[in-house]
Design goal:
By secondary structure, the chain is an all-alpha fold. It is built from 13 helices and no strands. The protein has a domain of about 220 residues: MetI-like fold.
């Protein structure tokens, strides 16, 4: 319970710091949605001042921040400058698809990298090890946007196998067919996000496994005549999983940040694309709402990773 309270206090403190830094950075940035000529070249200064008063932008920056924080406590992120819709409702509508893409990609990266990393280490110096390392380096150096365009050209344009835009077909049916159609549309974005995340993880797991294979307890297990499966399950995996879980927790910001690029390329109406469009139009309420939700999800994911780590390793530092 004490550990849980410490983690929650840390999460709240980090969210507070992130809110202050993000709020100042956005308002200090040059130009705004209400800059002269941006909104309407024919709008008079008096009309512009009245519009700013409606959104509370005529107040000093400190009072704007305090008002915004009061609304945040009730999950009220304000009204979008562009659409005039409630930002909380806009985020709630888009967050499930972004979370789905990131969670599926994270699970694929975890299981595939575990398999490839361990196999490369066990076959150290052999042909399979060489092929896996070359694959990892190729994955690590491949930009996600470039890979997405290549796959669209191959599977969508030339072969006409997979859809390249949106979440559903025009004739999508209801029921289970609706979700199968969505899964069909998500093959390319999930594949791209998983592929670019594999490289560094496979190399890391291979390196960790090689260190385990040099340990005394591994040689002791081999000397006892234990089978490869038992050694893997009882000696390699328990020592390998804690650092891997820690690294996955640290990789969450990169996965969520990658959604901005991929959702824009594949035309997926998720939080990433919403953030991109809001940034182009300088939509302060939408930008701040997405930043806070993303920060919360990232910190929550890291906290869950910490608890999984403590479960896997009871002797880990709990602080």
């Amino acid at each position: 319970m004490i550990l849980l309270m410490k983690k929650i206090s840390y999460l709240v403190l980090m969210l507070l710091l992130i809110s202050v830094i993000s709020f100042l950075a956005i308002h200090i940035a040059p130009n705004s949605f209400f800059s002269a000529g941006e909104l309407n070249p024919n709008m008079t200064p008096e009309a512009l001042a009245k519009l700013k008063a409606v959104y509370g932008l005529d107040k000093p920056l400190l009072y704007q921040y305090l008002d915004w924080m009061k609304n945040i406590l009730t999950l009220n992120f304000g009204v979008s400058f562009v659409t005039g819709q409630d930002v909380s409702a806009e985020i709630a509508k888009r967050i499930p698809i972004t979370l789905s893409i990131n969670i599926v990609s994270l699970l694929l990266v975890f299981f595939i990298s575990i398999y490839l990393g361990i196999k490369a280490a066990l076959k150290n110096g052999q042909k399979s090890d060489y092929l896996i390392r070359q694959f990892s380096l190729f994955s690590f150096s491949m930009p996600s946007f470039y890979l997405a365009l290549l796959l669209i050209m191959l599977f969508s344009v030339k072969l006409n196998i997979l859809p390249f835009s949106g979440l559903h077909s025009m004739d999508a049916k209801s029921g289970i067919y609706y979700y199968l159609d969505m899964a069909w549309h998500l093959i390319l974005p999930v594949g791209v996000m998983s592929f670019v995340g594999l490289g560094s993880m496979v190399i890391y797991i291979r390196s960790l496994t090689l260190e385990i294979l040099k340990s005394d307890y591994y040689f002791f297990a081999k000397a006892r005549g234990l089978s490869e499966k038992i050694i893997l399950r009882k000696y390699i995996m328990p020592n390998l999983l804690p650092p891997v879980v820690t690294l996955l927790g640290l990789s969450l910001p990169g996965l969520i940040g990658g959604s901005v690029i991929l959702e824009s390329i594949f035309g997926i109406d998720g939080m990433g694309r919403f953030f991109y469009m809001s940034a182009l139009s300088r939509d302060y309420p939408s930008i701040m709402g997405i930043l806070m939700i993303t920060a919360f999800l990232t910190l929550l994911g890291n906290m869950i990773a910490d608890f999984i780590l403590f479960r896997l390793n009871p002797y880990a530092k709990r602080g």
